[in-house]
Amino acid sequence: MTSHAAIPDRPSHPPVTRIDDFYAVIPAGGAGTRLWPLSRAGQPKFLHDLTGSGRSLIQATFDRVARLADHDGVLVVTGESHASAIVDQLPTLSRGGVLTEPSPRDSMAAIGLAAAVLHRRHGDVVFGSFAADHVITDLTGFDAAIREAVTAAREGWVVTVGISATRPSTAFGYIHAGESLNIERAPSVRAVASFTEKPDAATARTYLSTGEYRWNAGMFIARVTVLLDHLRNQRPALYQGLMEIADAWDTDQQDAVVAQVWPKLEKIAIDHAVAEPVAALGGVAVVPGNFGWDDVGDFNSLAALLPSDDSHGSKVLGDHTDVVRVGSAGSVIVPQSGRLVTVLGLDDVVVVDTPDALLVTTRARAQQVKDMVTELRDRGLDEYM
Amino acid sequence: MTSHAAIPDRPSHPPVTRIDDFYAVIPAGGAGTRLWPLSRAGQPKFLHDLTGSGRSLIQATFDRVARLADHDGVLVVTGESHASAIVDQLPTLSRGGVLTEPSPRDSMAAIGLAAAVLHRRHGDVVFGSFAADHVITDLTGFDAAIREAVTAAREGWVVTVGISATRPSTAFGYIHAGESLNIERAPSVRAVASFTEKPDAATARTYLSTGEYRWNAGMFIARVTVLLDHLRNQRPALYQGLMEIADAWDTDQQDAVVAQVWPKLEKIAIDHAVAEPVAALGGVAVVPGNFGWDDVGDFNSLAALLPSDDSHGSKVLGDHTDVVRVGSAGSVIVPQSGRLVTVLGLDDVVVVDTPDALLVTTRARAQQVKDMVTELRDRGLDEYM
C-alpha cells in the first residue's frame, strides 16, 4: 500500500497573489469504501496518491489552497486517528492548523467548528471549505472561481462552486443555477435556485440538456459570521454546542468541553443543515467552476485521472513494472503489494492488489465495491476494513 | 503456495492383491506452464495438491501404483532439482527408488533408463509407466485395466490405456483401436490401429461418433525386454547410450558414466520413438480405461476436479475462508498466499494468488496461460517462472 511517509512534501504550483483575510478549511473524513482495499478506515483515500502525481489527495488539496490562503491560513478538520498522518504529510501546516474531532459528526459540525474557531482567532474573515479527497486539474480556473466566490462571499452570500458537467453523471449532486447576481468583480456568480440529489441517468441527461445544471463540487465559501448566523437560524442547538466548544478552543478548557459537548452534536451534512434551506431563502450563490474536477469516488473515476499505460487504454496506479497484461484492454491495475500482477484475456477488469487483501472486479461494477465492504462487515472481517 | 512439506503421508486406498513381478515407473517432469503461477519450474504441478484431497498429484500417483507394485516396486524418474522434494513427499519410496536425470531428455530416455535399470536389478519383469501429474478417480476401474494390461504385456505387447472419451476434447491425443486380440484373461485388449495428435474440434467430434477412439492417457505397460528390443530397433543410438548408463547404474561408475553419456542422448518422446512406429508394425495394444482420468492441464480442468464451493458453481483450491465473492458465478479461486481474495461481479473468472505473483484470467482462456509464461520469459522475468 502507498505509504504516506513516502510521499515527499513538494508544493508543485507557481506562487500566486494570496487573497486577503481568506482562510481555507479542509474537512478530512470519510474512508472511501468504494476504493477498498486501497482505501481503508485507517488509511483513507485522502492519504493516498491516487493520480500518480507524487502527492496524496490531501497534499494536493493543501498545495492548491495554501497558495490562496497562505500556509498559516489553512485548517484541517479530521478524526484523532488521522491527525498525526496528516501532520506528517503536511509539514508546513501551522501549529493549531489541525482541529481534531473525537468522533465523526458529519460535515456541518466539522465546518461549523472551523468557522467558529476562525471567528475567535481572526474575526469576520472569509473562509472556503474544500474536501481533502477531490482532484482538480487547471489551477488557473480554480483560482479564478475562488476569487469570484470570495468577492460574492464578502457581500454576504454563501457561495458554492458548480462544475460544468461534461457527462450525465449519476454519481454527483447537481446545482440548479438561477438569476445572475450582478456582483461587481464577480460577474459570473448566480443565485442557486436549488440543489438536487444524485439523479438517475434519464434525469441527469435532462439536466445537461438545459445547460442550467452544474455538478456540486461540495465547496462552500462564506464569511464566517454569515455561515454561523445561518446555522443559528437553521440548527440552533448545533450552533450553541459549537459556540461552547469554540469559546473553549485554544484554552486549557478545550479538551474537557470538547469531551462533554461534541458527542451530543447533531450529525448532519452542511448541505442539509444550511445550503439547501438557505438556498430556498435566496441566500446561496454559485460560481461556475470551469476546471477539471473529480471526487475520485471509485476505481472507474480513478482510471479517468490516470494516463494510459499502453495503447489499449489500460491504467496502472503504482509501479508499472509490476504489471503484465496479455490480451487485456481497458484494465485498471493497482499494484500496491510489490507482487507481480498479471492479467490474461480480460477487458475492463479492475485488480487492486494490497499486502493483505485483493479485489478483482470490473470498471462497470466500480460503484458497487461498497457492497463488498458491506459483505466483509457482515462476515466480521473487520481487520480488512 | 502449497508447501509440499505440509502434505501428510497418508496412503488412502484399501489394500489390494499386488501383481507379481510388476514394477511401476513414475516419470516426474514438466513444469505445467498452463497452471502458472501455482505451478513453477521449481515447484512443478506434480508436487501440488490440486484436488483438495490432502495429497499431491505425485503422492496420489504413488499411492495408486504402490498398491499394485508394492512400495519397493516403484521407481520415480525426475530431475535433480526435484529429487529431494519427492523423497520428502514419498517417505515409503525405497532407497534406489529415485532415478535422477542431470537434464531433461524427454520421456523415451526417462522411461528407457527405468526399464534398463529394472532389467539389471530384477530381470525381464513387466513394468508400467504412469505420469506423476494425472488425476484418476475410480481405482477399481484403474486396477482392472492395469491387470489386463499386464496380462497382455506378458504376451509381448506394448500396452497403452485408452480412456473412454466423455467429450470431444481437443486437449488430448486419441488412440484408434483396432481388432480384439483375444488374449486369455485380458478380453478387452485390442490392437492399436494408430495414435493421433490432439485433434481440432470437428475431428474430435468425428472421433467420438465412431466409438473407436479413446483418449491416450500416456500410460505404457510392457515387459522391459520387449520395450528395450523395440527401442534397439527404432533408436539404436539412444538404446546404446541407455545400456551404457544402465550397466554402470548402482556401481561407483554411475555418476561418471551418466555425466558423460546422458547429455548426448536423443531428446524424444516415447510416443514418437516407440509407440507410433511399433503400432504401425502391429506391436501395440490398448486396454480400455473406464475410469475418471484427467491430466489437469489447466485451471479449467482443475476446476472440474474440485467440489463446488457454493450454489453458483464456484471452486476454491485452498482455504475457503480466504475467499469472498459477491455476484460472481463459476469462478475458480486459488488462494495460496494467506491474503483475502475478493471478487465482485465477474463470472467464470480465474484468480490464482501466490505470495509473489497473481494471475487473473477466465476459464475460457485457461489453455492460454502458457502465453503469459511466454510473455514473462520474453520480459526476462525468470524469477517468477
UniProtKB/TrEMBL annotation, chains A, B:
Keywords: Nucleotidyltransferase, Transferase. It is an enzyme of class 2 (transferase). Its EC number is 2.7.7.22. One of its GO terms (biological process) is GDP-mannose biosynthetic process. PANTHER family: MANNOSE-1-PHOSPHATE GUANYLYLTRANSFERASE. This is Mannose-1-phosphate guanylyltransferase (GDP). The lineage of its organism: Bacteria, Bacillati, Actinomycetota, Actinomycetes, Micrococcales. The keyword Nucleotidyltransferase applies. It holds the Pfam family ManC_GMP_beta-helix. Residues 24-304 form the Nucleotidyl transferase domain. GO terms for molecular function: mannose-1-phosphate guanylyltransferase (GDP) activity; mannose-1-phosphate guanylyltransferase (GTP) activity. Residues 323-376 form the MannoseP isomerase/GMP-like beta-helix domain. It comes from the Bacteria. It comes from Jonesia denitrificans (strain ATCC 14870 / DSM 20603 / BCRC 15368 / CIP 55.134 / JCM 11481 / NBRC 15587 / NCTC 10816 / Prevot 55134) (Listeria denitrificans).
